[in-house]
Write a sequence for this structure.
């Protein structure tokens, strides 16, 4: 249903804008006075000439007689009412058709000529400067049907070519490739040296090596080797799998898991062997019986090991036990009619001894109680905050992102601490409270606007150059030029000079009064953070991380901070009611910018004071003076999905695992907070309350039915865990077939080819797929280990009676860097294969005692291990593969959808909500949790982008530049949503007392502004998800925002007599004005980010071309003669 203005207004507008019967548009000399309420200069004042914000620079040189003029709106309807605006699915109620569009319960009155229609309009000019909005005049015709909105489409900007490929990659010659390879190896050697001898990683490496070397020495002692049996090397494999280089709590968890997992695997394997040798028929077909056991058991254990990470070590050990029993010496079933029961001893005893050695080494050599990771996280968070408190400075996305990353790392460290046994001075509960204090403090520091003129004598505006590296116009690079009309210089010069002089006096007053207290406050904040950091590190035994080695006095530093806060508050109070300050700040954006720095600074100081109080409480607690034992306190329903950091590292794919975990958490919290779907009613004709129950969304009663529960189980079994289980079964069973076939069972046992299945069991990963680089590195590591193991035994054989000593020397030389690669570097699985290959070849040759040539042992065992590696990589590569660049594109799609949902929720909860509803503390807490998850999502997406650099792409090098720019834009989008939410708590965008008509007039433009952003986001997300080109024409969010601002200015003038006036303190009025400005600027910046995301998405997936020539483009190029 469409509505329009009155016929008289429509006729006058049509006459003004049409040039004749053909209706072609001709330039208009201007609207008559009765049609024009105000012009842009009635809204915008010239004191806004030079304003620098975080993302946009505005230079006001606009003429008085602007083309974009506001026209009169007359509203009429047959029944005197309008249907409500489009409702957010997260709205809390549908009791009134109009209450959702209005915001009552106002705390502050609306000042005339608000900055929403001034500064925000200027900020939009760089998005609208190429659009001729008068050519798209709707003459008051509007879409008012429920579920629809007015979308304005403009000709899309041409995509400029980018040379980012040349900047990021080059094909290069073989010589260049060799130089890069040599340089990479040199950097790896430097990293090995620095990590081993200059950091605490050297202690971790030393403990892991000592555990392995002790087990290796035991295998070389003849009496012990005979007692352990033919497969004594399981003792060394146990010391690798559950190595001693981990915290004590993780070591205890791993010891228990490996013992119970091994017992379970031996029990299942023994049962399978017993049934396969029970009767003559089963003995003849023992391979089928073993396969029937192996397939479901391997599938179940694979599903558990990738879903319930808490049981990863137990399932891996159980798998090794089953593979060993079902594939080793199975020929005895066919030849002797029974299985060899000594296999249980030959696996269980070496495995138990190896696990015990690791536990003893871990407890006896520099035990780590579990607080080191938390100490590092707290220290890094403090350093990121100190870096951000270097004020003033230019806005740095790197500093901002680093603070967000430290929030993520701190949360992970606290979860890991609560998920295991710890021996620390600070309890996990205190650490969790410290985390909350740190996060609140960092969030307040992130809200600071670092670019401030508070500490300068004059206000300066600097222009930044256009970013030529990427070829994209980022918000940090936008410079807005609004041309001036020389004819207006004489008429308005005196007024502009007066306003400018008034603002200059007021700005200097604020700077003179607040600059020194602010500087002292920043200094004491920095000192307070340093004292807290030093105190915490000293209490947690990590005093080497801080430069201050002397004892610090936190109480004295806190007293200095509070004195500085009192001076700051005194200076701030002195400004209240000062005659030199204007009565309203709406005309003075530079003063608003100063206060937007002052207020968050004071809030950050308060957060640091709260942190200091908590540090004092912990330090004064007598229990914190000694180490105590704390059992795991993480909730069981969450603990089963987490494992300790060392296991996450050793299994590989840490970055991908983190990404998928946070993706699931974001989806869960979005479903929890925004689960109600809006259902439009096409028959709704404007009667209030007719469709109040249409937002019910999902049917809640259906979740209790058996049918729904069965669907949920079947849907869960279709997830990645089941696909991974299928791949593991495919690889292990295929490689195991020769053990059960008569033609191959003898050479299978003779050459111990079952190591191929063991290698595949280790190399299969649910989250990281195979690629050419993984294949090369793991095969090379396996070959290197096999060759070195063969050389070691050959040299030992040549030495005569000194064989064990020579083997020990060779093992020390090779295994020290190999273990480093396994447990320290980011290439864990290639390091594991090097360790396995050397151990198996060298000890197999030693146990064989010359029965077979050394070369034969080396190539047969090495080939078996390589076969398992190649099979695992190829299956991961070809069957449901994980490709980082594909996941990166899909992650951008998911992040855009989540941002759209978050934006919709903020609009519904904090802006256009029910008249009797105010955001509760629970709402604010849930919003902060949601924002923290989204920040972590951006952080994990950057890690995913780094993974694309290690993927070999046959088509050519992958350019991640537009993806990284899009991630940055998403993060800025999120920060603007946070700004809108925080500003709405101080200023709520409501209108006039009891004016239902004014609210109804605002509903359509509010709806269009919100819907345009959401539709753009959903279209871009869909294009990224499906890898389809973006439509050439999308609704203009900037134009919708501009119409909203124009309508607001028009209604403010029309309903001026109905403004709500109430007495209030000066300080409250000031903060209302300040956050009124911040709220409006953030909404405008959101539009800028949406426009930037549109350009970047078109760079990534392309732009949809039209099937016919663009008529307008041909007209502009002069190629159309009008015939």
């Amino acid at each position: 249903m469409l509505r329009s203005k009155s016929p008289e207004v429509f006729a006058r507008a049509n006459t003004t804008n049409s040039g004749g019967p053909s209706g072609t548009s001709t330039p208009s000399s201007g609207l008559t006075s009765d049609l024009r309420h105000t012009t842009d200069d009635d809204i915008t004042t010239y004191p806004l000439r030079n304003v620098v914000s975080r993302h946009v620079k505005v230079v006001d040189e606009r003429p008085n007689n602007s083309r974009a003029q506001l026209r009169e709106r007359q509203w009429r309807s047959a029944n005197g009412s309008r249907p409500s605006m489009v409702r957010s699915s997260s709205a809390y109620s549908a009791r009134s058709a109009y209450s959702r569009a209005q915001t009552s319960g106002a705390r502050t009155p609306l000042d005339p000529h608000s900055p929403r229609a001034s500064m925000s309009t200027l900020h939009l000019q760089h998005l609208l400067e190429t659009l001729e909005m008068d050519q798209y005049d709707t003459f008051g015709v509007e879409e008012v049907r429920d579920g629809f909105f007015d979308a304005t489409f403009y000709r899309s900007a041409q995509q400029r070519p980018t040379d980012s490929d040349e900047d990021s990659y080059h094909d290069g010659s073989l010589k260049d490739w060799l130089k890069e390879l040599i340089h990479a190896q040199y950097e790896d050697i430097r990293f090995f040296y620095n990590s081993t001898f200059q950091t605490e990683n050297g202690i971790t490496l030393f403990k892991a090596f000592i555990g392995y070397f002790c087990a290796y020495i035991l295998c070389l002692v003849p009496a012990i080797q005979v007692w352990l049996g033919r497969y004594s090397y399981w003792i060394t494999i146990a010391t690798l799998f559950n190595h001693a280089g981990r915290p004590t709590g993780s070591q205890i968890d791993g010891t228990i898991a490996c013992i119970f997992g091994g017992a379970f695997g031996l029990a299942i394997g023994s049962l399978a062997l017993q049934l396969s040798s029970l009767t003559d028929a089963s003995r003849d077909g023992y391979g089928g019986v073993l396969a029937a056991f192996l397939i479901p058991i391997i599938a179940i254990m694979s599903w558990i090991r990738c879903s319930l990470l808490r049981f990863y070590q137990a399932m891996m050990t159980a798998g090794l036990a089953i593979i060993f029993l079902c594939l080793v010496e199975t020929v005895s079933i066919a030849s002797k009619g029974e299985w060899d029961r000594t296999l249980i001893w030959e696996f269980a005893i070496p495995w138990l001894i190896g696990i015990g050695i690791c536990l003893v080494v871990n407890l006896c050599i520099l035990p780590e109680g579990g607080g080191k990771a938390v100490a590092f996280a707290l220290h890094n968070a403090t350093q990121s905050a100190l870096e951000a408190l270097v004020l003033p400075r230019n806005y740095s996305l790197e500093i901002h992102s680093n603070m967000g990353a430290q929030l993520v790392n701190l949360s992970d460290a606290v979860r890991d601490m609560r998920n295991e046994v710890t021996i620390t001075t600070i309890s996990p509960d205190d650490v969790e409270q410290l985390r909350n204090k740190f996060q609140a403090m960092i969030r307040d520091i992130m809200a600071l606007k670092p670019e401030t003129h508070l500490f300068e004598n004059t206000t300066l505006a600097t222009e930044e150059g256009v970013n030529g590296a990427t070829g994209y116009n980022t918000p940090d690079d936008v410079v807005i030029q609004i041309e001036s009309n020389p004819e207006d210089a004489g008429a308005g010069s005196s007024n502009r000079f007066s306003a400018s002089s008034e603002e200059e006096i007021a700005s200097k007053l604020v700077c003179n009064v607040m600059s020194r207290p602010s500087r002292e406050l920043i200094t004491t904040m920095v000192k307070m953070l340093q004292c807290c950091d030093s105190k915490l590190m000293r209490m947690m035994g990590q005093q080497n991380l801080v430069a201050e080695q002397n004892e610090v006095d936190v109480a004295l530093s806190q007293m200095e901070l509070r004195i500085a806060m009192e001076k700051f508050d005194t200076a701030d109070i002195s400004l209240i009611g000062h005659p030199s300050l204007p009565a309203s700040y709406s005309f003075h954006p530079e003063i608003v910018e100063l206060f937007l720095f002052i207020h968050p600074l004071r809030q950050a100081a308060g957060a640091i004071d709260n942190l200091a109080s908590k540090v004092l409480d912990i330090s004064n607690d007598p229990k914190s003076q000694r180490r105590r034992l704390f059992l795991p306190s993480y909730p069981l329903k969450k603990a089963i999905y987490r494992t300790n950091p060392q296991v996450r590292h050793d299994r590989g794919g840490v970055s991908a695992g983190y990404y998928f975990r946070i993706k699931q958490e974001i989806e869960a919290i979005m479903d929890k907070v925004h689960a109600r779907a809006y259902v439009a009613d096409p028959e709704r004709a404007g009667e209030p309350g007719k469709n109040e129950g249409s937002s019910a969304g999902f049917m809640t009663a259906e979740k209790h039915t058996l049918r729904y529960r069965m669907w949920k189980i079947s849907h869960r079994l279709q997830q990645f865990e089941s696909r991974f289980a299928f791949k593991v079964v495919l690889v292990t069973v295929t490689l195991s077939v020769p053990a059960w076939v008569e033609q191959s069972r003898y050479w299978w046992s003779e050459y111990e080819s079952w190591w191929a299945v063991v290698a595949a069991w280790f190399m299969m990963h649910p989250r990281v797929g195979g690629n050419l680089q993984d294949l090369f590195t793991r095969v090379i590591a396996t070959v290197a280990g096999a060759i070195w193991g063969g050389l070691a035994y050959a040299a030992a054989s040549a030495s005569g009676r000194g064989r064990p000593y020579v083997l020990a020397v060779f093992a020390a030389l090779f295994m020290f860097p190999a273990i480093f690669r396994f447990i320290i570097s980011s290439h864990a699985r290639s390091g594991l294969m090097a360790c396995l290959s050397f151990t198996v070849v060298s000890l197999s040759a030693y146990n064989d005692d010359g029965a077979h040539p050394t070369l034969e042992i080396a190539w047969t065992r090495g080939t078996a291990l390589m076969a398992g590696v190649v099979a695992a990589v190829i299956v991961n590569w070809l069957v449901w593969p994980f490709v980082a660049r594909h996941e990166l594109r899909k992650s951008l799609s998911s992040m855009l959808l989540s941002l759209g949902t978050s934006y919709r929720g903020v609009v519904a909860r904090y802006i256009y909500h029910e008249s009797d509803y105010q955001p509760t503390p629970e709402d604010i807490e849930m919003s902060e949790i949601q924002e923290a998850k989204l920040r972590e999502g951006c952080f994990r997406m950057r890690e995913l982008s780094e993974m694309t650099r290690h993927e070999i792409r046959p088509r050519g090098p992958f350019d991640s530049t537009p993806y990284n720019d899009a991630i940055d834009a998403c993060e800025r989008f999120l920060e603007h949503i946070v700004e809108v939410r925080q500003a709405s708590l101080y200023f709520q965008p409501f209108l006039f007392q009891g004016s239902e008509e004014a609210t109804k007039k605002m509903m359509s433009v509010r709806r269009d502004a919100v819907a345009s952003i959401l539709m753009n986001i959903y279209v871009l997300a869909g294009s990224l998800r499906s890898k389809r080109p973006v439509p050439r024409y999308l609704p203009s969010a900037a134009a919708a925002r501009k119409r909203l601002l124009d309508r607001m200015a028009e209604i403010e003038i029309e309903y001026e007599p109905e403004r709500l006036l109430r007495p209030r303190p000066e300080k409250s009025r000031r903060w209302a004005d300040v956050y009124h400005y911040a709220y409006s600027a953030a909404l405008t910046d959101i539009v800028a980010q949406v426009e930037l995301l549109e350009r970047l998405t078109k760079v990534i997936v392309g732009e949809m071309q039209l099937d016919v020539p663009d008529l307008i483009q041909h007209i502009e190029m002069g190629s159309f003669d009008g015939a």
Remarks:
- Residues 489-539 form the longest helix (51 residues).
- The beta strands are 2-3, 50-52, 56-60, 142-143, 422-424, 478-482, 628-630.
- The mean pLDDT is 76.
